[in-house]
Amino acid sequence: MNFLIRRLQLDLVPTSTNCAILMLRIALGVQMLIGHGRGKLMTFSEKAATFPDPLGVGHTTSMVLALFGEVVCMSLLIVGAFTRLAALGGAVTMAVAFFLVHGAKLSGANSGEMAFLYLVGFVAIFLTGPGLFALDTKLGDRTNVTK
């Protein structure tokens, strides 16, 4: 019976928090960079004048800030450089998108569901740190490495 309980609890699956953080960093970072940041970057000149301005800083400035969060921060997040700052940049960008652009709606027209999911992921990375498989760690910051 004990054998069956162990199998149902999936105790045979190896656990590695560091691998999980790496997967989360790469999956969120690549998808945000390619799925959102690249498109904004490629159409900057056409869309900058009409980009949403939820903070009242101007359409072009808002687009530059979004690009910073979606391109620069995600590039850093993927390789694990300045990981917590990069995750914070992504989280702030997604918080603005979710709360101000999408009105904190999780369903229906103009849903912010994806922004919310990204926000949660970036906050999780911010709280955990870079993990073992990150440039931060290779360069000497081992304070947030889990065993």
- Biggest beta sheet summary: none
Judging from the principal axes of the Cα atoms, what is the shape?
globular
Overall domain count: 1
Residue stretches low in confidence (pLDDT < 50, at least 5 long) are none
Number of helical regions: 7
H/E element order:
HHHHHHH
Q: What is the chains' assembly state? A: single chain
Estimated helix fraction: 55-70%
Radius of gyration: 18 Å
How many strands appear in the DSSP assignment? 0
Helix/strand structural class:
mainly alpha
Strand fraction equals under 5%
Please give a structural write-up.
The protein has one domain. The protein is globular and about 65 Å long. The chain is mainly alpha-helical and 147 residues long. Helix 2 packs antiparallel against helix 4. It is 66% helix and 0% strand.
Short summary of the structure?
With 147 residues, the protein is mainly α. The chain contains 7 helices and no strands.
Task: Itemize the secondary structure elements and their pairings.
Blueprint: H1 2-8, H2 17-42, H3 44-47, H4 59-79, H5 83-101, H6 113-128, H7 135-138
Helix pairs in contact: 2-4, 2-6, 4-5, 5-6
Features:
66% helix; mainly alpha
